[in-house]
UniProtKB/TrEMBL annotation:
Pfam families: Sugar_tr. It is a multi-pass membrane protein. It is found in: Membrane. Its main location: membrane. One of its GO terms (cellular component) is membrane. This is Solute carrier family 22 member 13. SUPFAM superfamilies: MFS general substrate transporter. PANTHER family: SOLUTE CARRIER FAMILY 22 MEMBER. The chain crosses the membrane at residues 140-160, 215-237, 249-269, 320-341, 353-372, 384-400, 406-430, 442-463, 469-489. Keywords: Membrane, Transmembrane, Transmembrane helix. The gene is SLC22A13. One of its GO terms (molecular function) is transmembrane transporter activity.
Amino acid sequence: MSGVGEILKAVGDFGRFQKCLVLLSVIPCLSVAFHQFCQLFMVVEVPHRCDTSWILAVGPNLTEEEQLNLTLPRGPNGHFEQCSMFSPVDWDLDSILAYGLNHTEKCSSGWVYPSEQPPSLLTEFDLVCDRKDLNDIAQAIYMAGLLLGSMIFGPLKLWGASVSSQCSEEGKGSTPEQEVSLILTSRIILLQGKTAVSFFLSATEWIGVSSRPNAVLTSHCCFAIGQMILAGLSYGIRNWRLLEIAGSAPMFALFFYIWVLPESARWLVTKGRIEEAKKVLQKAAATNKCSLPPELLEQLKPEKEVRSGSFLDLFQKKHLLKVTLIMSCAWFVNSFVYYGLSLNVTNFGLDIYLTQLAFGAVEIPARFACIFTLQRFGRRKTQAVLLVLSGLVCLIITGIPEDQPVATTVLATIGKFAASASFSTSYVYAAELFPTVVRQTGVGLCSVSARVAGILAPLVRLLGQHHRAIPMAIFGSAPVLGGLLCILLPETCGTDLADDTGDGHPPAQVGAGAASAVGTWAASTGGAPWMCWGFL
């Protein structure tokens, strides 16, 4: 691009300047992880019952036990029903005691919760009984916001998005109404998707091709660390408002350094702002303690952006059509099982805080492990086996009794490991399967399919009302089928990257590794930020 690549090599692939940019992108990355799963700990199930204080008007001296015995029916297990009550009547207390109450109805006057229970989204918004589904619906809206936020807000300035995001986060912590909270939730993630993406783009466009895989791996690990931090924060802070504020507060740090973040030199050259590009390149070189020859800077010339392949290009060739459909399916089922396990952290039976900590911690070795498996066993086998393994784990969970929480949690953790490693594998595999001219479009389509799966995952959990095994059976079946489909894809380990769509198969083996594949893909897509966050 008009000498930018050569100048960036002179500046340094991964010097002090680039390391600072990666470090500054940590806070938005951690914040996305926190807000993506924090709702699980704000809507923890607590004992509840219908509010039957109406009977106190005719029997003010009744004890709580007498009140409940007169106004609440009992279930088959002998416990009071949580979502139904005896219909109020106009009788006096003696008549009620003599004849009893027989007709039941749904809770009409709200619910009562344990007085020692800290405030939560569940207790304040009554997300129980018929309103319980709103929790999963809100999570689906949140996931939809991730997709829309990454795509719609791409052209916006970073500072505007981050300021709005911070205001929305703090506003959510103080809103009194559920409808307002849902609106702010969708607004938060729309803007957070843009903020995190912008930081990651700024970092990756300055980093050399050989070091870009390390930056991508860093973002993956930061997301895992963010999940672990969530476990600690939610354990120590049980008040949902304080938890929301504590998780959002670090975003205030953006105000102290967002104004000094450099523009992308590539973007400045594309826009014809050559002098600004020269200044920022000289600043980067000075930070890395190197100098740029004046004649090298003079090579910068305005150039139009290179047009990538169109969406339709992916469906005009038979071999590309197969790759597009199977890889989109693989990303879909990968995201499906990943969120299917992650969002069920409260249903495995063990302490939810320890389970969340384990779920976050297991992602770090999973990301690193896939590097070695890709080189040892190849892309196709690794992708297929990891998907099938994650699916089989979910299917096995459906047959484990509810009184075996340890076995369930261990299997779920194994499934999370496989799903996380499979996601990292998907980036490498997709980068090598799609030719350069349609690589950005192809991987982008795969990312969109993964986002759609993230939207559907919390809605599938609603089927658990009919039988607890149904959601896990669906989460398990999909990746097994997707993994088997991956067998139909060509092996790309050790092959060069295709540049055009003319070949029906990957080029001859020349020894290209996974790291170079990711680096070349990142270079060809200009960072492709909204794709790089497909796993979130």
